[in-house]
Amino acid sequence: MSPHASTEMAPDLRKQRRWGETAIHALLFLFATLSILTTAGIVIVLFSQALRFFARPEVNLWAFLTDSAWQPQIDRFGIMVLVIATLITSVIAMIVAIPLGMMIAIYLSEYASPRTRNTLKPILEVLAGIPTVVYGYFALTFMTPLLQGLIGKDVVEIFNVAAAGIVIGILILPLVTSMAEDALSAVPDLLREAAYGLGATRLETALKVVTPAALSGLAAAFIVAVSRAIGETMIVAIAAGAGPRNFDSWSDAFHNLAIFNPFKAAETMTGHIVRISGGDISYESIDYDSLFAIGLTLFLITFALNLISRRVVKRFREVY
Question: Which of 9, 75, 175, 230 has its CA 20 to 30 A from that of 205?
């Protein structure tokens, strides 16, 4: 065979352009860019509108952070009364969601058979599909009367933070359970088998071996759940109350501990945004601009929680 014939039969090793893959790559890049641009646009609008609020002569940043009342009618903008109400509802929600979610996650991960797990998880996640408006009226018409019957109608008001916080805990229970169960299931079975080989019971293995090994995933799940609780809107708008819990001074509030009473009405940041934005307010009014200041505060809180979540995951992450 001549050398010319062997050259003609050699395969073409040059890189071939595949137009289908190129189009798919460009489309995926476009969607990723759009998501980044959308997020950047939201942040830019939020900061620009909030700066308009702080640029007003009647607004003082120090008073915004320290005043004990939120009364735009008399130019008092104490954001902390809204922040504290938001944190109280979130703490109550996590007191409900974390223990229950962890117990359910440990059962699904360590005790339940695959058939039971595949049956219970979809049933539990149905809770996540219920509209939050339904949760709000559930808190108002069921949880509040239940608390009044247990504690007393003279103690528990019709609109109160406790009922809203408990129902928010029920709302985020599927989130906590699902993420915690995923973190526990990701722990290698070799660790469980080693614990069983040393004589540990199944409960001891779950609590002393598997749970510490999944700490980073569990911490991330809890922080994400806190962010979800802080951002919840309709439950607190319906069940927590329709007015900020204002005080004459912080010293009186802390002396009487009235600001921490969960059985009284209080308006959260999201609840206030819903109430004010649903009314007839002018786009040039200070009330309208104050909504963006509240939104910016909420954004900074959730952003800080996300940063903490990333640090926790990076600090405690185990690589197997």
Answer: 175
The pair of three-digit structure tokens given for residue 215, joined into one six-digit string: 């700490």
> Can you list the alpha helix ranges (DSSP code H) found in the chain?
3-9, 19-54, 61-66, 80-106, 114-125, 132-138, 144-151, 161-185, 189-197, 202-205, 211-213, 215-231, 234-239, 250-256, 269-277, 286-316
User: Which structural domain range is residue 97 located in?
Assistant: 61-316
Question: CB 49: neighbour CB atoms within 10 A?
Answer: 16
Nearest Cα residue to 153 out of 264, 259, 267: 264
SS3 68: coil
Q: Give me the number of domains the chain comprises.
A: 2
Q: Please tell me whether residues 35 and 165 are part of one structural domain.
A: no
Q: For 179-220, how does the pLDDT look when each residue is reduced to its tens digit (9 = 90+)?
A: 999 889 888 888 888 988 888 888 889 888 898 888 888 988
Residues 186 and 244 placed together within one structural domain of the fold: yes
Contact 244, 82 (CB under 8 A): yes
Look up the pTM and report it. Answer: 0.85
Based on the fold, state whether residues 44 and 175 are members of the same structural domain.
no
